[in-house]
């Protein structure tokens, strides 16, 4: 089973980012019924527990990634820039895909990642959040609704525009 998951992750790692389609089933969520994914709890690289529900009231970007995934590495500066620009209203969580803590710690330090990195998601979380490839990025609104999803590398201009539009629509 883990072999199949690894194969799917490797294949998706090299895939082009998806864009919204008319049904909203790819990058942007556009379902008629809101979806509120279940809470999760993971630990940060320094061992502190973190629950998604602790961030209720803020925008949350969840990015599933790995050190071996080239698109994941390329989008880290974009995520850092977004984290800095939206620091008052948004939290970015990087969720590493089960690599050794020491390896991830060194990698994050060397790249200067400034947002929290969570480690070792359980199988239930990966299934619940439909993690079938890397990178995968989700945006959760302050009320806990999953409002946006992208499979593949996010680029600054389109990601910032989507985030801006979502925040504006949420306030309306």
Key terms for this structure?
7-stranded mixed β-sheet, 172 residues, Glutaredoxin, 7 strands, 35% helix, alpha/beta
Strand-helix topology:
Layout: H1 2-13, E1 41-44, E2 49-51, E3 59-65, H2 70-85, E4 90-96, H3 101-111, E5 117-119, H4 123-128, E6 136-140, E7 146-151, H5 156-171
Parallel strand pairs: 3-4, 4-5
Antiparallel strand pairs: 1-2, 1-5, 3-6, 6-7
Describe this structure in a few short sentences.
The chain has 172 residues and is of the alpha/beta class. 35% of the residues lie in helices and 20% in strands. Strands 2-1-5-4-3-6-7 form a 7-stranded mixed β-sheet, covered by helices on one side.
How many domain regions?
1
CATH homologous group name = Glutaredoxin
From N to C, what is the helix and strand string? Answer: HEEEHEHEHEEH
Low-confidence stretches: 1-29
Please give a structural write-up.
This protein is α/β, with parallel strands linked by helices and 172 residues long. A seven-stranded mixed sheet has the order 2-1-5-4-3-6-7, with helices on one face. It contains five helices and seven strands; from the N terminus they run H-E-E-E-H-E-H-E-H-E-E-H. The protein has helices at residues 2-13, 70-85, 101-111, 123-128, 156-171; strands at residues 41-44, 49-51, 59-65, 90-96, 117-119, 136-140, 146-151. The relative contact order is 0.22. The chain is 35% helix and 20% strand. The longest helix has 16 residues, at 70-85. The chain has one domain (2-171): Glutaredoxin (3-Layer(aba) Sandwich).
